[in-house]
Amino acid sequence: MFAKVYTLFRPLLKTFDFLAPLGDLAARLWIANIFFKAALTKIQSWDTTILLFTHEYQVPFLPPVFAAYLGTGAELLLPVLLVLGLGGRVVIFVFFCYNAIAVISYPYLHTPEGLPGLLQHVNWGLLLMLLMFHGSGKISMDHWLAKHFERKLFS
Description:
Distance between the termini: 46 Å
Helix content: over 70%
Largest sheet: none
Oligomer: single chain
Pfam families: DoxX
Shape: elongated
Number of domains: 1
Structural class: mainly alpha
Subcellular location: Cell membrane
Order of helices and strands: HHHHHH
Number of strands: 0
Keywords: Cell membrane, Membrane, Transmembrane, Transmembrane helix
Membrane topology: Multi-pass membrane protein
Mean pLDDT: 94
Number of helices: 6
Organism: Piscirickettsia litoralis
Radius of gyration: 19 Å
Strand content: under 5%
């Protein structure tokens, strides 16, 4: 019975396996786009960004101006690495931590009015967590580098 069910669904499962790298890439592009746009907004109005980090965001252990530079830099660099699939799980883990710190640092997200924003961060965190658990996928620089240099590095 199980063999018949498996045979029936095998083409569908093979299609999912074939499309998985596109799903990985789509998730990476989605997250990268959101955070990169946030960085561009911060750069467009740097004075406002400094004011926000001074009075709104409460980044633990960091002075507000340093947090503004660090946060904006992370939002500029991490999406590029994510899109390229370079740095794999380590970069994705850093991105995941950055997202968590953003949630912790912005008290507004923990109010009834801020709930939609909090839910967005949770969704982004879940996508990052899935990527972190299995890597950037086959459509990535990491995959290409591993394939291209693996024989030379380990032979």
